[in-house]
């Protein structure tokens, strides 16, 4: 099933889709307010784009610098080419410490590598501590948004999930009550944990440390209690120095949720005495992406603004993309990395370019998605569309044929009964009346005027 | 070839860039009343500011409606604490007007987990240390001997349940900044 | 100054009145306007679908047909955008360099080249006509004919500036400058999302109490009109050229 089919299922519940659309548009509006409160907003975006481009151009240099300085700080640095290698490294380190209870704060990279199922197969209990992620984890569901993982669930759904798994009052769907219940349930997990796994928002090359941004404080609480902190990062997360953080910390939360900054912006520079801080740098297709024409995608700082603004995402939901990261950036990444599995995604887009305008690092998203169609049109699943477009091209280059077919269409539309015109193969006609070719085209009229 | 070498070679040459990263050449936000803006920013983030005139400890105690141990990280080092500390008083080194964040560096004075385990946080901040924006903040803070430091803006929060903002996710439920000279 | 009129396929075959109105408005400015015969599609559907070979054929034909004109004006922001921003690489560099600064969407041309102060429309409406203006994605984010709501920039609108010189015309905009959902082949390959987007946009405009919607792109209007007629919504769709020519 491609995106369109899954979107159809989503939209069947009209009211729920409208609710989903309104909820995410509201987040987009909060972003707008935040952006307007910063007079130099557009210049900041330009700076962020240039800093990321510069860093990506010299990525090897900055990564080596990061490793050197991190090691000097007592941080252990590991390198993983693939998801599998990443997972092996993480489980090996856990095994070294005999750690079997892990608390994990949000990391899209670990989702990408499917770390949780791997660790579970090794007998490690993994608790996602981000509230949204914990909700979907308990429900055996999957996140539908990278910043708001449970945006597809209503509070009644969460109430039901918590009643079942945490023993909360059934039918009490008050968000504050539910959040407090999660707080005490997860507090126990934090206290019992023997290791913490976090993501990395920014890795500082000059200073040799990492930065993690959360609203809940789960990365901080998680990493301060046990002796072992493993931080997983895609290799594109490195930035030159703390100076650049000034730009990114001003753009990230405003773009994501409309907040001026996340509640916690934590800088892990050295492990605490007697503790281990391990950073795993992961490639998993990023170096190939860097060498391709879609390298701008690597600027992404995972704010989710493109999802909030995308009219298609809002009306189809994150699950309809079938990827770890959904929405415009998700479609672009999936298409660039594995077109065969995700050929429908670059076409799940009207090329409206709203995503380009909200992206804090000015990725030319709609252009990337459009260019990826040069590849998707060659896929087997697109054979029929390719044929139709080739036929259309032929007709348009043969004006006499074209004119004739339009006249014939006009006549047919006038004669044929509605049930034939609006048959089940007429997709346009499912929701729309057919446009009728004019009796005389403009070129006919112009000719007769002269 | 090790994984590291394989990845670095796939990324291209390691030579340092000729020019450093692009810098900010334009005006960044400044306020005529940074303390006032800090106040409203912190409020927007779910926190509160209290002006301190008189006995600091008394003011702090009376600002939080609860009885219970107050962990004082300012007078001396803290090495022990209960599993659920109810109120911790600590010092922040700097404040940021545009977002109500304060920079906290525990150094060796107290365990890091106190910052998130404590239900309420009383943060003492000198008005003189409030800067306008994050560029200035990062310029002022030295990472020289830094082990762990964070910008904390208001109490912990989440909006993961139907976008309803709930204050107090895993960290502090109440956060007040006490402004001294 | 020799001006050529480029009429997109949809307009030529389905909405010739929009092209007629555009011609009228341009001629009224005292311009020498020609409609070179043999013109065909600008290639947009092929560009949008990644069929570069086919797109190049149409692009080459386009630059050839319009080689000798000072300006090429089109009642379509999406076609104009395709030529200006997507012909690079589809035709040789010289041809591209030559054509990209000569193509204009109609309102853009009237605003930038003719100038709002020198514009002569000779149109007024009485009683006051209240119309919804649909800002298409191409007009907003590609040609930048008006400020998009995502950006922190000084608000402006070339289209509204042009329309504002008409007496008796009240222009209202939708609450969201969101895509109508046409997206070319998107309308048939993602029909459910497309229809919902279109209906949402119509409802948005309707909530302003208008019974007529105008815009610079006929494709958006055609898509919304199809939906409105199916749903029995009594709302008319006219191209902005028709509003400018007083042909409502």
Care to describe what's here?
- The complex is a heterotrimer of chains A (450), B (181) and C (248).
- Chain A contains 23 helices and 10 strands.
- Chain A has 450 residues and is an alpha/beta fold.
- Chain A folds into 3 domains: 119 residues, no CATH class; 186 residues, Rossmann fold (3-Layer(aba) Sandwich); 52 residues, no CATH class.
- Chain A has a 6-stranded parallel sheet, sandwiched between helices. A 4-stranded mixed sheet of chain A has the order 8-5-6-9.
- In chain A, helix 3 packs across helix 12, helix 9 packs across helix 10 and helix 16 packs parallel to helix 18.
- Chain A is globular and about 90 Å long.
- The mean pLDDT of chain A is 96.
- With 181 residues, chain B is α/β, with parallel strands linked by helices.
- Chain B has one domain: 3-Layer(aba) Sandwich (Rossmann fold).
- Chain C has 2 domains: 111 residues, Rossmann fold (3-Layer(aba) Sandwich), CATH 3.40.50; 124 residues, Rossmann fold (3-Layer(aba) Sandwich), CATH 3.40.50.
- Chain C is 47% helix and 16% strand.
- In chain C, the strands form 2 sheets. A 4-stranded parallel sheet of chain C has the order 2-1-3-4, with helices on both faces. Chain C has a 4-stranded parallel sheet with strand order 6-5-7-8.
- Chains in contact: A-B, A-C.
- Chains A and C meet through helix 1, helix 2, helix 15, helix 17 and helix 18 of A and helix 1, helix 2, helix 3, helix 4 and helix 8 of C.
Describe what is shown at a glance.
Chain A has 450 residues and is an alpha/beta fold. Chain A is built from 23 helices and ten strands.
Write the element-wise H/E pattern of chain B from the N-terminal end onward: HHEHEEEEHEEHEEEE
Percent of sequence in beta strands of chain A: 5-15%
In the CATH scheme, the class of chain B would be Alpha Beta
CATH superfamily of the largest domain in chain A: NagB/RpiA/CoA transferase-like
Count of individual helical segments of chain B? 5
Record the strand order, biggest sheet of chain A.
1-10-7-4-2-3
* Radius of gyration computed on alpha carbons of chain B: 20 Å
Radius of gyration of chain A: 25 Å
**What's the architecture of chain B in CATH terms?**
3-Layer(aba) Sandwich
- Return the structural class of chain B: alpha/beta
Looking at the structure, the CATH topology of chain B is Rossmann fold
Task: Using the 3D structure, state the CATH architecture of the largest domain in chain A.
Answer: 3-Layer(aba) Sandwich
| Integer average pLDDT of chain A | 96
Q: Indicate the low-confidence ranges of chain B by residue numbers.
A: none
**Largest interface here, residues on each chain?**
A-B, 91 and 72 residues
């Amino acid at each position: 099933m491609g995106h369109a089919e899954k979107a159809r299922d989503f939209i069947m519940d009209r009211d729920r889709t409208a609710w989903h659309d309104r909820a995410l548009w509201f987040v987009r509006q909060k972003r707008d307010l935040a952006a307007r409160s910063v007079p130099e907003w557009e210049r900041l975006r330009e700076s962020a784009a240039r800093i990321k481009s510069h860093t990506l151009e010299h990525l090897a240099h900055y990564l080596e610098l990061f490793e050197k300085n991190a090691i000097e700080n007592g941080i252990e640095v590991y390198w993983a080419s693939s998801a599998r290698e990443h997972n092996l490294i993480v489980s090996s380190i856990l095994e070294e410490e005999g750690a079997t209870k892990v608390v994990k704060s949000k990391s899209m990279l670990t989702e990408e590598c499917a770390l949780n199922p791997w660790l579970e197969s090794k007998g490690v209990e993994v608790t996602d501590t981000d509230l949204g992620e914990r909700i979907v984890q308990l429900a055996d569901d999957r996140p539908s948004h990278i910043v708001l993982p449970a945006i597809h669930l209503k509070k009644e759904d969460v109430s039901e999930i918590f009643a079942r798994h945490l023993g909360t009052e059934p039918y009490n769907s008050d968000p504050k009550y539910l959040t407090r219940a999660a707080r005490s349930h997860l507090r126990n997990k934090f206290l019992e944990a023997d290791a913490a796994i976090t993501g990395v928002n920014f890795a500082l090359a000059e200073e040799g440390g990492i930065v993690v941004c959360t609203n809940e404080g789960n990365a901080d609480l998680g990493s301060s209690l046990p002796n072992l902190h493993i931080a997983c990062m895609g290799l594109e997360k490195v930035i030159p120095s703390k100076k650049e953080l000034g730009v990114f910390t001003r753009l990230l939360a405003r773009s994501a949720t409309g907040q001026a900054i996340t509640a916690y912006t934590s800088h892990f520079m050295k492990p605490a005495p007697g503790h281990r801080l391990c950073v795993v740098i992961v490639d998993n297709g990023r170096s190939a992406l860097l060498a391709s024409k879609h390298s701008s995608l690597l600027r992404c700082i995972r704010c989710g603004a493109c999802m909030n603004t995308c009219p298609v995402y809002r009306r189809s939901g994150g699950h309809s993309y079938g990827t770890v990261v959904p929405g415009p950036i998700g479609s672009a990444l999936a298409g660039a990395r594995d077109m065969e599995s995700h050929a429908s995604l670059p076409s799940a887009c009207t090329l409206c370019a709203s995503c380009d305008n909200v992206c804090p690092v000015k990725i030319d998203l709609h252009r990337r998605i459009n260019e990826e169609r040069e590849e998707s049109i060659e896929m087997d699943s697109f054979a029929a569309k390719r044929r139709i477009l080739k036929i259309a091209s032929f007709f348009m280059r043969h004006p006499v044929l074209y004119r004739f077919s339009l006249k014939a269409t006009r006549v047919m539309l006038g004669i044929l009964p509605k049930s034939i015109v609006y048959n089940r193969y007429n997709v346009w006609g499912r929701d729309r009346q057919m446009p009728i070719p004019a009796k005389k085209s403009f070129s006919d009229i112009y000719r007769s005027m002269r | 070839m090790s994984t590291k070498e394989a990845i670095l070679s796939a990324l291209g040459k390691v030579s340092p860039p000729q020019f450093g990263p692009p810098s900010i050449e334009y005006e960044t936000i400044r306020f005529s009343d940074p303390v006032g803006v800090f106040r409203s920013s912190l409020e927007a983030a779910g926190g509160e500011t209290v002006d301190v005139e008189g006995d600091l400890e008394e003011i702090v105690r009376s600002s939080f409606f609860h009885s219970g141990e107050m962990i004082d990280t300012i007078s001396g080092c803290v090495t022990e604490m209960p599993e659920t500390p109810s109120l911790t008083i600590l010092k922040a080194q700097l404040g940021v007007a545009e977002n109500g964040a304060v920079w906290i560096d525990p150094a060796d004075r107290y365990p890091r987990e106190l910052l998130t385990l404590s239900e309420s946080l009383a943060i003492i901040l000198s008005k003189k240390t409030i800067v306008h924006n994050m560029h200035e903040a990062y310029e002022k803070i030295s990472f020289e001997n830094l082990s762990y430091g964070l910008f904390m803006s208001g109490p912990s929060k989440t909006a993961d349940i139907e976008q309803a903002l709930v204050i107090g996710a895993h960290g502090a439920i109440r956060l007040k900044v006490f402004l001294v000279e | 100054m020799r001006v050529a009129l480029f009429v997109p396929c949809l307009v030529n075959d389905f909405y010739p009145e929009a092209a007629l109105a555009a011609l009228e408005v341009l001629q009224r400015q005292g311009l020498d306007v020609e409609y070179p015969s043999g013109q065909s599609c600008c290639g947009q559907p092929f560009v949008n679908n990644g069929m570069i070979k086919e797109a190049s054929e149409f692009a080459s034909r386009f630059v050839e047909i319009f080689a000798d004109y000072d300006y090429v004006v089109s009642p379509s922001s999406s076609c104009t955008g395709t030529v200006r921003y997507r012909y690079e690489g589809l035709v040789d560099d010289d041809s591209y360099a030559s054509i990209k600064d000569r193509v204009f969407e109609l309102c853009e041309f009237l605003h930038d080249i003719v100038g709002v102060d020198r514009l002569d429309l000779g149109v007024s409406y009485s009683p006051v006509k209240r119309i919804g203006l649909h800002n298409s994605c191409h007009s907003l984010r590609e040609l930048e004919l008006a400020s998009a709501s995502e950006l922190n920039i000084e608000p402006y609108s070339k289209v509204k500036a042009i329309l504002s010189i008409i007496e008796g015309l009240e222009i209202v905009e939708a609450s969201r400058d969101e895509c109508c959902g046409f997206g070319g082949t998107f309308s048939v390959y993602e029909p459910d999302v497309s229809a919902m987007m279109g209906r949402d946009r119509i409802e948005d405009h309707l909530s302003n109490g208008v019974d007529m919607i105008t815009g610079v792109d006929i494709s958006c209007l055609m898509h919304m009109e199809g939906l409105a007629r199916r749903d029995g919504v009594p709302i008319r769709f006219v191209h902005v050229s028709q509003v400018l020519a007083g042909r409502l």
